[in-house]
Amino acid sequence: xxxxxxxxxxxxxxxxxxxxxxxxxxxxxxxxxxxxxxxxxxxxxxxxxxxxxxxxxxxxxxxxxxxxxxxxxxxxxxxxxxxxxxxxxxxxxxxxxxxxxxxxxxxxxxxxxxxxxxxxxxxxxxxxxxxxxxxxxxxxxxxxxxxxxxxxxxxxxxxxxxxxxxxxxxxxxxxxxxxxxxxxxxxxxxxxxxxxxxxxxxxxxxxxxxxxxxxxxxxxxxxxxxxxxxxxxxxxxxxxxxxxxxxxxxxxxxxxxx
Length: 258
Fold this sequence. Notes:
The protein contains 7 helices and 12 strands. The chain has helices spanning 11-16, 19-23, 45-50, 86-90, 116-136, 172-183, 189-193, and strands at 2-7, 30-34, 54-58, 68-72, 78-81, 94-99, 102-108, 142-148, 186-188, 221-226, 233-238, 250-254.
C-alpha cells in the first residue's frame, strides 16, 4: 500500500494550484489530507471519483478551519470520525480507517504558534492522543499514524535549531513528547530508511517568500508505524518539489495483506 500524508492548507486553494493534476499521476493508493478547511460538499467529488478515489471527510465545525480527509483507492473495512475527545473532534483533527488488521489514523496535531492558550491546548491534545493510541493498541496491534504533527523532532529536522529553540514546534516539551512516543515502539518511517538525510523538510514558512527556494524548512509531517509493521516498510520519501501548499507530501510504502 502506497500512502501519502499532505497538509494542503486549504483543499480548494490546493486544487486551484494543480492538486487534481498531480492526483492524476497516481501518487498513492491512500492519500491523507490535513487542514482541508472545507466540508465535503464544498468540493466536486466526481473529479476525485473519476480518479478512482473514495473520500472520507471529518471537518471542523468552524467554517474554513482545520479538518482532515482520506482519499483511498482501497476500500476500508471500517471508518471512525474523531476519537471521542470533545475539543479535538470539534476542530476535525482525527479520522481513522481500518484495512483488515491494519489501522490507519490521519491526524492534524494542533499548532501553538498563535499564543500561550493554544500552546497549552497542544500539550493537552498530545497527552490525550498518546493515551488514545495506547488504548487502541490493546485491540489493534498494527497501526499507522500519519499527519502534520507540528513538531520538528531533532535538530536535523529544522534548518535553524539554535534560532528556533524557543519556537512552538521545536520546544523541549514537544520534542520530549516525540521522544516518548517513539520510545513506545513507534517507527518514524522516513528516518528509518533515511537516517543520514539532512535538509529533508516538509514545511516552509509563507511569511518569507524566499525560504522555500533556500530550503529553510522544518520536517513536521510524519508517517509513523508500530514496530509490528517495521519489516513491512518498503520505502519512505519526501516530495519537496510538489507545491500546492506551504507543506509538501510525504510518502511511505508498506506491504499490507488484506
